[in-house]
Prior knowledge:
Keywords: Aminoacyl-tRNA synthetase, ATP-binding, Cytoplasm, Ligase, Metal-binding, Nucleotide-binding, Protein biosynthesis, RNA-binding, tRNA-binding, Zinc. By secondary structure, the protein is an alpha/beta fold. It is built from 22 helices and 25 strands.
Amino acid sequence: xxxxxxxxxxxxxxxxxxxxxxxxxxxxxxxxxxxxxxxxxxxxxxxxxxxxxxxxxxxxxxxxxxxxxxxxxxxxxxxxxxxxxxxxxxxxxxxxxxxxxxxxxxxxxxxxxxxxxxxxxxxxxxxxxxxxxxxxxxxxxxxxxxxxxxxxxxxxxxxxxxxxxxxxxxxxxxxxxxxxxxxxxxxxxxxxxxxxxxxxxxxxxxxxxxxxxxxxxxxxxxxxxxxxxxxxxxxxxxxxxxxxxxxxxxxxxxxxxxxxxxxxxxxxxxxxxxxxxxxxxxxxxxxxxxxxxxxxxxxxxxxxxxxxxxxxxxxxxxxxxxxxxxxxxxxxxxxxxxxxxxxxxxxxxxxxxxxxxxxxxxxxxxxxxxxxxxxxxxxxxxxxxxxxxxxxxxxxxxxxxxxxxxxxxxxxxxxxxxxxxxxxxxxxxxxxxxxxxxxxxxxxxxxxxxxxxxxxxxxxxxxxxxxxxxxxxxxxxxxxxxxxxxxxxxxxxxxxxxxxxxxxxxxxxxxxxxxxxxxxxxxxxxxxxxxxxxxxxxxxxxxxxxxxxxxxxxxxxxxxxxxxxxxxxxxxxxxxxxxxxxxxxxxxxxxxxxxxxxxxxxxxxxxxxxxxxxxxxxxxxxxxxxxxxxxxxxxxxxxxxxxx
Length: 644
Ligand code: MSP
């Protein structure tokens, strides 16, 4: 099958078109490693296609309407527009700093998008596929959709693990059920349409039973933050119906839909399979638009064995990893350590190990050894190679066959295997050095030509590696090329040719491409972090409001008569005096405390500590070693004042 595809790709004459999309992300959360994964993955695919010379277009953006966003804006105390501007800006800035080469960033609040949504809705309406009716069901605001009883896990939302609320409303409905037989047949006939296969099977499973009609509107009185329906302005468009259309509206708004739409490749994770595998194809069918080429569905990055969540406090932020390890190393890890379609476990230690083994050891060493020897034996200038011996030709073949093999792997979503095959060739090059022993050749002038050939072969291996890895580590690939003395544009075909480095080129050995990570120090710092971060549940503003924080002035402090570690403090709280027993004795001399103003929790139920009733608690910061520091106020403020 691979041979067949190879033949096919060779025989393609016209410039292929590639249009790839990420989901448009909800703006109720900031970008995390999951969003970064899909976006980086599409970036790598897009860069690879550009390298092949394909006419490539890459779309990403943000999903900004609906009840969930409206609620998030309320909670932030901002208008939905101001709020979405802010968070959408954060997504865009994050992608910019992660070197995401998107061609377009779409926001569903843009007018150009809303116009196309209206147009598509009208088409579906004119096609007789919209009806008005009442619907009742279990709704998840997090997913912005109704769930059937069968889809629930232990009666809860499978994505958010919450009990869903029953809702019933008068809405407009899209006659989705009508298209079920068509979609089923389509999926039966096109096994690759949704891939990998497990997700196709999941959608086929859904289609085996009635899917019902899809509620596509919300009463404007309840959810004003949305696009009004073109035929009834008392209702706004359901957020998924609005959002999915982004993939088309982005093109339509500048007239390129005829060019790119027929080639669209969607990339999503498994969480949004149903909207993309069931809602979207039926919507397109009704609107008379062609279907996507493939729906490419990947798994989830898990953290600590489960889903990341704010409440567990384990959300992994891509910019933190970029700052710590560099963006190219982070991208490499993301693509190398997840098999497309399967879940993967994020581990910072795993990331560091990957850097050390593949990037610092295998690739970095090959560069350093090659340029080191070139400096020592040939003043850093690229020599002219002599005739190739079988061992040289074998290394050449290991590299020049890679472009075609990688093309097939990337087309089949095997990004991890594609990277691994480049690294295998890099390891072969290291082995080649060990076997050809250039340092031994250098000892005898009679072997000068042989040494030239060996060094040149290593340089060519590095040149090819720089091309093949450029979609994954774009900046380091440039740096690598600069050290090789190469500049300018290059294509994938350049990695099929051997001997493109001109003799006489001056190389410039620079700093190591990927510095090694000190694993022992990393393990230690992670242990400390673990100890500091207790996973606390998220609280609502109402939970917070139940606590009363006040400023208290310490009037006097003395040692607790029956406890070594405790002080007994008399504090003034406005007109009131209280006794507070506190465990700060180790860090504070009682005589130095009088007159200090601190923050206390004033409405704690009193407790007796070693026989003395404590009527409150002083807030103190505690570091990883358990050292305490009481909260100090930097301005004089009356005791009894509230702290919020
Ligand atoms: N707004 C919708 C998508 C509309 S597309 C027309 C949405 N947004 S989202 O912000 O929740 O993003 C979901 C997507 O983020 C996933 O499909 C996936 O691309 C990415 N990921 C979120 N968490 C993830 C992981 N833990 N692991 C991998 N990808 C994840 O749904």
